[in-house]
Amino acid sequence: MSSQTSKIVLGLSCSITVGIITYVHMKQQADREKMHEGVIRDTERQQRRKIENIYLLQQQNELTKQLKKELGNS
């Protein structure tokens, strides 16, 4: 009877250990994916800001040209 109980305890311990290892592995994988998605979002955000800054710079250049033109005509 003692041998059977020890086998059950050993089996349960192994099962719980495998379950914990599987959970940790899956959690780490999910965390890595979330972190990668964050990097992708940051890159996209930087690209949008770059495009907006270029657009604003072009507008400022056009306004500067217009102002110089108006001041030159006066």
Question: Can you tag this structure with a few keywords?
Answer:
74 residues, mainly alpha, 1 helix
Description:
The chain has 74 residues and is mainly alpha-helical. The chain is 97% helix and 0% strand. The chain has 1 helix and no strands. It has one helix spanning 2-73.
In short:
The chain has 74 residues and is mainly alpha-helical. The chain has one helix and no strands. The N and C termini lie far apart (109 Å).
Question: Structural class per helix/strand content?
Answer: mainly alpha
What are the low-pLDDT stretches, counting only 5+ consecutive residues below 50?
none
Q: What string gives the helices and strands in order?
A: H
- How many strands, which pairing sense, and closed or not: the largest β-sheet? none
Radius of gyration: 32 Å
Binned strand content = under 5%
Number of helices: 1
Large-scale geometry: rod-shaped
Q: Separation of termini?
A: 109 Å
Number of strands: 0
Mean pLDDT, all residues: 94
Helix share, percent: over 70%
